[in-house]
Design goal:
The protein is of the alpha/beta class. It folds into two domains: 2-187, VC0802-like (2-Layer Sandwich), CATH 3.30.2130; 191-421, Rossmann fold (3-Layer(aba) Sandwich), CATH 3.40.50. The protein has eleven helices and 17 strands. The strands form two sheets. Strands 9, 10, 11, 12, 13, 14, 15, 16 and 17 form a nine-stranded mixed sheet that branches. The chain has an eight-stranded mixed sheet with strand order 2-3-1-4-8-7-5-6. A hairpin with a 6-residue loop joins β13 (346-359) and β14 (366-367). It is elongated, with a radius of gyration of 23 Å. 41% of the residues are buried.
Length: 423
């Protein structure tokens, strides 16, 4: 089967996450900007989208056509649907190469109106859902009942000589520059917002790890649900909260500050009362909280007792930053000491998903990773490539040991690494 994924703000990170959780044997067909199309065995889209942090929509490719997309091809791709309820219909348009000029909003709406009329001639009651963009947002798709009582039809446009598709199209299929898909699930934005803003303990002054990024990091760890996962800089408990939601059963959180441990405890208790895990096996997560500096973890945890470490460490003061060289030196010393402890408590073959801060400093960011990586490699930690080597490359996604996550206005960038441990 072929599926499409509408990727988030950072396509590289979204692809790395998908590479980590999709079953073996999946094959990329095309990637361009925020669209990834793959071939894969049948997937449970609803379950996958609850786990993903970096993907906005997921759907199934319904048909391929060498003819221009029209209301006729859309109606044919819809197949039979129930007629006793009103059908909510929305269209979204995406480009698969840079030479394509997508239909504008007026043109897309015209296709939608023609599709609506064609369906009404077949005795359907149809309401056309539109927006001010050529691609409907996940909020509109969910709130306008397109998943529960209708369909969002995704229209993918490409030129006939699109070289990014042709080499990867199976021999059994002709080159098909026009694809029609149907959205199956969207990102869980409401639930994530409720967990973020509803939890009793929030403190922007100490920095807040975004929930969607947290989910990505947990997926990059590739740990089984029974694994013991440690967050040694647990702060307000975001990693532990999302891990319990995703079905992990053995969690450890440590922090230097007792106030942070107390805040994590309150947030976890609140979560247990107000949220049901996505992946619910009926077992309650076992969460252990300890007040301990990352430089002394081996005093509190057994040798090689942890399967994976997922964390955003202390990134430095939020205000009145010291001279950049001094700050990077101090943080690097902390991180190297933490990894020295990781080498004592992490199982051989275990993974560390770690955020290294990079500070905007002219045209080239100043990276803490430049100072830390040479030292922790001596301890047995090796960065891994986060992207598969066979991604089609019109978007120039290159296999890399790190991916940077940031917003345009951020002064501190998050450089994400996944490292494996071999003593």
């Amino acid at each position: 089967m072929q599926y499409f994924f509408i990727l988030g703000r950072n396509p590289e990170l979204s692809c790395a996450e998908l590479h980590a959780i999709l079953p073996a044997g999946w094959r990329p067909v095309v990637i361009f900007q925020n669209v990834l199309i793959i071939e894969c065995e049948p997937l449970d889209a609803s379950h996958i989208m609850k786990l993903l942090g970096g993907t906005i929509k997921m759907g199934e490719i319904l048909s391929h056509s060498t003819h221009p997309i029209s209301h006729t091809t859309i109606v044919e791709s819809l197949g039979k649907t129930v007629k006793d309820k009103k059908l909510f219909l929305g269209l979204s348009a995406y480009a698969l190469d840079k030479k394509i000029k997508l239909p504008n909003i007026r043109e897309l709406r015209k296709i939608g109106i023609e599709t609506k009329r064609a369906l009404e001639e077949q005795k359907y009651r149809v309401r056309l859902v539109t927006s001010k963009e050529v691609a409907l947002s996940s909020v509109i798709v969910k709130k306008e009942r397109l998943l529960r009582q209708g369909a969002e039809i995704a229209l993918f446009y490409a030129t006939k000589k699109n070289q990014s598709i042709q080499p990867l199209t199976p021999e059994t299929l002709p080159l098909t520059p026009q694809l029609i898909g149907r959205t199956l699930a969207v990102q869980e934005f409401e639930e994530a917002s409720a967990r973020d803003f509803g939890r009793p303990e929030r403190a922007m002054s100490v920095g807040m790890l975004p929930i969607q990024l947290t989910k990505i990091m947990l997926n990059l760890a590739r740990a089984p649900k029974t694994a013991t996962i440690l967050d040694p800089f647990c702060g307000l408990g975001t990693v532990l909260m999302e891990a319990t939601q995703m079905g992990y059963k053995n969690l450890i959180g440590t922090d230097l500050d007792q106030k942070m441990i107390d805040a994590t405890d309150q947030n976890l208790n609140w979560l247990a009362k107000h949220n049901k895990p996505f992946y619910d096996s009926g077992e309650t997560a076992n969460v252990k909280l300890l007040t301990a500096p990352a430089e002394e973890l081996s005093k509190h945890l057994g040798p090689h007792s942890v399967d994976a470490i997922v964390t955003e460490p202390y990134l430095g003061p939020t205000r009145d930053r010291a001279e950049l060289k001094i700050l990077i030196s101090e943080l690097s010393t902390l991180y190297i000491a933490a990894f020295r402890e990781f080498s004592k408590i992490l199982k051989p073959g275990g993974r560390v998903v770690f955020i290294f801060p990079a500070f905007k400093n002219g045209s080239t960011p100043a990276k803490t990773s430049d100072r830390v990586l040479p030292e922790i490699k001596k301890l047995g930690f090796t960065p891994i490539q986060l992207l598969p080597s066979d991604l089609p490359n019109p978007y120039h996604l290159t296999p890399s040991p790190s991916i940077t996550y940031s917003r345009p206005d951020q002064k501190v960038l998050r450089e994400i690494f996944v490292l494996t441990f071999k003593p």
